[in-house]
Write a structure and sequence with these properties.
Helix content is 55%, strand content 9%. By secondary structure, it is an alpha+beta fold.
């Protein structure tokens, strides 16, 4: 009967407690080694003294060897060895090397997130400062990719098991319509006509398909138009539609022109910058607060989110809104700045949870893989989808004097 020694640090460890087989006859080995012998019978068996008892138990179907332990002590892990695996103690991977490789992989992922995150932040900042068609076209491109990701989630196995997804050509048509909505909003100055026309076109396309139309197809397509097309258009209305000067002083009034931007800070530009910055602060403070103090789960939709993290995110969002309002002199009322930050936080949180709900039903972790280390477009912009509509409504309806 052939035998071989194996260092159990090389293999995955099973959480198992066993007493030593002090009376068993086994070859001499080190205290860190196990003796594995191949039985001649075809049925895999393992002889163990379990829980410190002196009764030997035969367990079938676990490890195709019989295991003996030299020294009389209790250990809490046993190595799993495959039947046909060649064991070479000299080339074994120690327990220290495995965490090191995992740590390197995590550091690599973190570097990707930081690099691409900074790149995205700088690019978005330049686009917001530029405004006009630059801002609108960039938003339309993001909307198109996000719409494609949404309809792929709808077609995923987790959601499609309980409903009939729209045909692929309907998904493509909806994605194109969603991308055209921001452009039409800038060109026409309003969004109502484009949304009504889009709903009519999609409904007619669904009704005239070859198969039998399903109500689930209509609802998922309509929600896609609303979620991916209609809501992002409010950022165009906020950034490009509110062109009233925002500053009471000359400080920085003509700064954007250096970069080819507008000659003065408008309400739309300042409100967009404050909203974007507040959302970033909310996500950052919520992450830090959740890691440091998170104990109470916020919702079952996203188990990693906690009430402690949400409170930290709310505080960071409001503080950022108030700070930037003092820098830009808009809005002049501190109470208005606090309310604006409060609204931005809940808009971002609701958008984040909505996308988490869609992904949970779809059975996926990320909406896509376009951005290394970050996932898809929807994973990055989910906090902004509802916030644009809330920010525009607040500035337009509750600040009739544009905060001055």
């Amino acid at each position: 009967m052939a035998s071989s020694c194996i260092d159990f640090d090389r293999f995955k460890l099973l959480p198992l407690s066993l007493a030593s087989l002090s009376n068993s006859h086994s070859p001499s080995t080190s205290s860190r080694a196990l003796i594995l012998t191949r039985p001649r019978c075809s049925i895999p068996r393992i002889g163990l003294f379990l829980d410190g008892s002196r009764v030997k138990r035969e367990v079938s179907g676990i490890i195709p060897r019989t295991i003996f332990l030299k020294h009389p002590r209790i250990i809490t892990a046993v190595a799993r060895a495959e039947p046909n695996e060649e064991v070479n103690k000299g080339n074994s991977t120690t327990a220290r090397e495995i965490p090191t490789s995992e740590l390197k992989q995590k550091n690599s992922q973190l570097k990707k997130r930081v690099v691409f995150g900074l790149g995205i932040g700088i690019s978005v900042g330049g686009v917001v400062l530029a405004g006009g068609w630059v801002f609108t076209v960039a938003l339309a491109a993001a909307v198109f990719v996000g719409a494609r990701e949404y309809f792929e989630l709808v077609r995923s196995r987790g959601i499609a098991d309980g409903m009939t997804p729209p045909p692929r050509y309907i998904s493509r048509v909806c994605s194109v319509i969603c991308a055209l909505m921001p452009v039409l909003t800038l060109y026409l100055g309003q969004i109502d006509v484009s949304v009504t026309s889009a709903a009519f076109v999609v409904s007619m396309a669904l009704l005239m398909q070859r198969g039998i139309p399903r109500f689930a197809q209509l609802t998922s397509a309509m929600f896609g138009l609303f979620y991916c097309g209609y809501l992002p258009c409010f950022w165009v209305k906020l950034r490009c539609g509110l062109a009233v000067p925002a500053l009471n002083t000359r400080l920085g009034a003509s700064w954007p022109v250096i970069f080819g931007g507008q000659t003065q800070w408008t309400v739309g530009l300042v409100a967009t910058l404050i909203s974007f910055s507040s959302i970033i602060a909310a996500d950052t403070f919520a992450f830090i607060g959740g890691k440091a103090f998170g104990r109470t789960p916020l919702t079952n939709i996203s188990p990693k989110k906690t009430w402690e993290g949400a409170v930290a995110g709310l505080g960071g969002c409001i503080a950022t809104s108030v700070l930037l309002s003092r820098i830009f002199c808009w809005p002049t009322s501190t109470l208005s700045a606090v309310a604006f930050g409060f609204l931005n936080f809940f808009g971002s949180l609701f958008g984040d949870l909505t996308e988490s709900m869609i992904k949970r039903d779809a059975g996926v972790k990320d909406s896509g893989s376009l951005i290394p280390g970050h996932g898809g477009i929807l994973d990055r912009v989910d906090s902004y989808i509802f916030t644009g509509a809330l920010a525009y409504s607040f500035v337009k309806l509750f600040l009739p004097l544009y905060g001055i």
